[in-house]
């Protein structure tokens, strides 16, 4: 997995007025949930800010990254866990990061990449990717940049489901019956099938 450095600054003031002021200056409030726990067993949260520009390469990309968060000179390995956008302007409002514990698995969404020419496509069908990202649970250093699904043997009207996929060291968390990709019958393929059946 690629890594990306993001520079942030600790927040001294919280509250609605301070948050509004930050956003008006193109600065995004963020929270880092650490590996340390408080007395109630919850992850210790660090409030900090990042410029909108500083988040651009992390947010507007199909790739997944481990983030080297540099908060006032202190560097922490983290992943982006959650992001909130403005419902109208799509401006980034808030980002949550989770510090990586090298000994504990993390949950991430990984893009799916289809590989090969499906049998069903040769027969006139249309290949459709139904799930663009799969949710995986694994140690961060074994999570790949993408999950490759070979579709070479996929016939007309056939599907590949989550339950049929297997990747070493990864646990797939999506429903086993969820369809990842399918070769759909086109009108031309239906006509060819009907003609062949006569």
Automatic annotation (TrEMBL):
Q: Which GO terms describe its biological process?
A: translation
Q: Does the keyword Ribosomal protein apply?
A: yes
What's in the keyword line of the UniProt record? Ribonucleoprotein, Ribosomal protein, RNA-binding, rRNA-binding
Q: Which residues form the Large ribosomal subunit protein bL25 beta domain?
A: 106-185
Family statement drawn from the similarity comment of this UniProt entry: Belongs to the bacterial ribosomal protein bL25 family. CTC subfamily.
Describe, as the record does, how this protein assembles with itself and its partners: Part of the 50S ribosomal subunit; part of the 5S rRNA/L5/L18/L25 subcomplex. Contacts the 5S rRNA. Binds to the 5S rRNA independently of L5 and L18.
Put simply, this protein is called Large ribosomal subunit protein bL25
């Amino acid at each position: 997995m690629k890594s990306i450095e993001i520079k942030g600054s600790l927040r001294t003031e919280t509250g609605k007025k301070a948050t509004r002021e930050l956003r008006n200056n193109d600065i995004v409030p963020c929270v880092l949930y650490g590996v340390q726990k408080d007395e109630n067993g919850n992850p210790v949260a660090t409030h900090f800010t990042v410029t909108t520009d500083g988040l651009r390469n992390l947010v507007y990309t199909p790739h997944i990254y481990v983030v080297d968060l540099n908060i006032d000179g202190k560097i922490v390995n983290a992943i982006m866990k959650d992001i909130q956008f403005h419902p109208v302007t799509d401006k980034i409002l808030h980002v949550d990061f989770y510090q990586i514990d090298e000994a504990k698995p993390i949950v991430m969404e990984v893009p799916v990449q289809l590989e090969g020419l499906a049998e069903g496509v040769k027969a006139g069908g249309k290949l459709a990717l139904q799930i663009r990202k799969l949710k995986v649970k694994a140690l961060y250093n074994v999570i790949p940049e993408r999950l490759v699904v070979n579709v070479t043997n996929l016939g007309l009207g056939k599907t590949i489901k989550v339950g049929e996929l297997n990747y070493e060291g990864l646990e797939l968390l999506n429903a086993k019956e969820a369809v990842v990709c399918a070769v759909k019958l086109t009108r031309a393929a239906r006509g060819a099938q009907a003609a062949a059946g006569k």
